[in-house]
Every structure is written in structure tokens, then in C-alpha cells.
Amino acid sequence: MVRDNRDSNAIDLSINVPPDQGGSTYLDDDGRLKRTGTVWTASAHIITAVIGSGVLSLAWATAQLGWLAGPVMLLFFSIVTYFNSLLLATSYRAGDQDVGKRNHTYMEAVRAHLGGFQVKACGTVQYLNIFGAAVGYTIASALSMTAITRSYCFNTKGKDSPCIISNSPFMIAFGVLQVILSQIPDFDQIWWLSIVAAVMSFTYSSIGLILGIAKLSENGKIKGSLTGVHVGTGPGEVTQATKIWRSFQALGAIAFAYSFSLVLVEIQDTIKSPPSEYKTMRKATSISIAVTTVFYLSCACFGYAAFGDEAPGNLLAGFGYFNPSWLIDIANAAIIIHLLGAYQVFCQPLFAFFQRTATAWFPGSEFVTKEIPIRIPIQGYEPYKLNLFRLVWRTFFVVVTTVIALALPFFTDIVGILGALGFWPLTVYFPVEMYIVQKRIPKWSTKWIGFQILSVTCLIVSITAAAGSIAGVAAHLKVYKPFKS
């Protein structure tokens, strides 16, 4: 039996090690199971987390900001995310990047470098953001399922058919699938799901891009303006107040599209070494952010050029349900498959935290710690180890997120709030502060002042984005009846 005793929340990592092979074949430098991640699996995890359903709202966000501010803000968030991701990656090991003590989670990294109240603050923000992402993904997947069903309805019953379809059954179906997938024990075992999800994200992003280019070619001109949606009283125009709130909300949508910092440390913890995890993570981050930035700029700009001020909150919705309906159906199916994986990539850290906590509080409870082997009728596969606490806790989590999604299915607004709440603390503040402590950067030095300016600037952006998204939710609640989407 091997136990990690370095902190009070450690899990009992019991494994059977053949006496003739020794523990080194199966165990890592700190007694945990060996990691197998590479730059490619890490890139797949990141792309799965980053290129999510948020890409579909970027054309709408660009329409609110215009040709001048839209691309600039996309590049701004890309650069800030990349820079701060490198800072956060240095905090994975305390001290030396090759042999320092490993921090397996974001919270452990904050505890090792900052400690005190900031650990609880980090955990609260991180896990609330993960919870919110699960709600957002449930809503987005249901919208895609509904779109496919309506497309089939129109093509079989005719264009004039109302084809009124509720999102609710699809949210429930997505929840049922997540209950099953959530029983995968840990992050390192979902690498295959991330690769599938990453492929799907490229699929629907590419289709959205191709359709945008085709629409632009059909129009024969580039739509949009330097300042975005026009203020006025004419068709498609908005009031000055609405323009401001939507511009703020657009910032939140862009921030959400780039959010993966909340699971960066957990992804880094899947990477094998040598070389040092930081070197591999730096390559994976560079590859992933470069790829996603090109995709985001392309989808946002071509989508805005094709639709102008009328760019929809979901880019695929702008092409309707006809010609070519089969291609749009493929894109929506890819979104659903991608979100099945993205849900797990985001939620695994939260699942693991509660399981660690329960194990630390009730070490003698068989309900919490006992694993029941279940034989899988496939040759070469080890028995699946069923844990009752994992089954109950993760099922409960999925049920709660599904119920909230059923009650508040405002995808664009939810996306904006999530992006705003998680961007500054998780992507900027904690990585900056941990780097300052780790590198012993003197207070009031030029580098320290530069970091603080970056942090304050991003805080202002997060506050304005949150304000815009909350205003959007408030507007929807005035006319919306819960559970009747």
C-alpha cells in the first residue's frame, strides 16, 4: 500500500505492485501513479478546454465592438492568456522546475506560494467557475441538439412548419450521458476523450468558418463598421445604453472563449517528466493558444463580415436550417460531442477535490474509500473500480447543473458572466502574485509595477464584462418563465 501523506487532503492511492517488478514501474517521484502525458495530450486537453462553444459567440461579440475594437480585444485576451499561462505553469513545482515539490492542483499551487485566505478565495472562484461552465455546456449542447431536431423537422414537414421544440429533454439527455462519463476516475484517464473532443472542436469551428466565407462571398461585400452595432431607432439599431451594456457583455464572451487557466495546473499534472513539466507545458500552451487565436480571429471576423450587425449569438444559427442543412447538422453534432468531453475536462478537478476532502474526513468509511472491482467483458482491460461515494457525489453534481440549466437557459449571458468571473482572478491575479513570490521580485521595482498595471487593467475589464452580462440576464428574466425553454 502506498499513501501520499504530504497534505491532509491526500487520497489513498492503493495499487497492487507485483513483487518481482518493484514500485518504480508504476509509481512517480512522489508515490503517486506514474504520469503518461505528453505535449500532444496536454495540447489536446487545452484545446478541448479553450476551443469550446464560446467560439460560436465571437462573431456576435465582434459585432458589438466593431472592426476596430473587436479584433484588438481578441488579440489582447490571447496575449494576456498566453503570458499568464506561462506564469502559472512555473508555479507547478515549488522552487526548482525539475526537482521542486509538485503541486497537483491550482489550489495546492496557491497554498504553496501564497497561503492563507488566498487559498480559500482561489478554491471558491475556481470551483464556482467550473460549476458555471458545466451549466453553460449543458445549455449549449441542448441548443445544438434542438437545432438538429428542428432541421430534420423542417426538411420533412416543410419550411412553413412551426417545428417548436423544447430544449429541456435534450438537457436531460446530456445530463444522463454526463452521469456515465463522470464515473471515469481521474483526469489522466480521459486523454482519449480530450483528443476526440479537440477533433470535434476543430470540426465545427472549421464549418462555421467555411460557411462564413461562403456567406461573405454570396453577399459580395464586407458588412460591419468600425464601431459595431449602430445606435439609433431604425431596424437593427439599439439605444446608447444597450450598446454600452452589450459591449461590456462582449468582453465577457471573449474572456470565456479563452478560459482554461482554472484547469491548467491539473492538466500539467498529467505530464510525464523528464523533461520538466514546465518545458512541456510551455510548448503545449504555445501550440494551443496559437491555434485557437487563428481560429477565433477567423471565425469572429468572417462571421461579422458575413452578417454585420445582425451576427447571431450562436454563429451556426445565422445560417438557418436549410442549404446546406446537412453540413450545419454535422457542425452541431460535433459541438455536442465536444461538449461531452469539455464538461469532463473542466469538472474533473472539482470531482477530485471533493473526493480528497471526503477521504480525509472519513478515512474509515467504506462508502467513501472502498473500491468494488467490476469485470469489463473486453480482453486486456483491467476491472473497473466502482466507488460508491464517487457514484453518488458526481451524479448529484450533474443533476444540480442540469436543473439550473433547465431554469436559466441564457447561453450568451451565462457565457459572459462565467468569462468575467474567472478571467481576472484565475487567469491574471493568482498567476502574477505566485510568480512574484516565486521569483522574489522586489516590491515597487519596475517589473513589479508592470505586473500590477497588467493586473489592475484586467480587473477593470472583468468588472465591466460582468456588469454587461448581469444586465443581459436581468433583461431576460423580465420576460422568461423558468423550465419553459
From TrEMBL:
One GO term (biological process): amino acid transport
Amino acid transporter transmembrane domain: residues covered: 35-473
InterPro entries in the cross-refs: AA_transpt_TM (IPR013057)
Source superkingdom: Eukaryota
The keyword ATP-binding is annotated on this UniProt entry: no
Any one cellular-component term (Gene Ontology): membrane
Transmembrane segments: 39-61, 67-92, 164-184, 190-214, 287-306, 326-346, 391-411, 417-437, 449-475
A Pfam family that the UniProt record links to this protein: Aa_trans
Keyword annotations: Amino-acid transport, Membrane, Transmembrane, Transmembrane helix, Transport
Subcellular location: Membrane
Protein name from the UniProt record: Amino acid permease 3-like
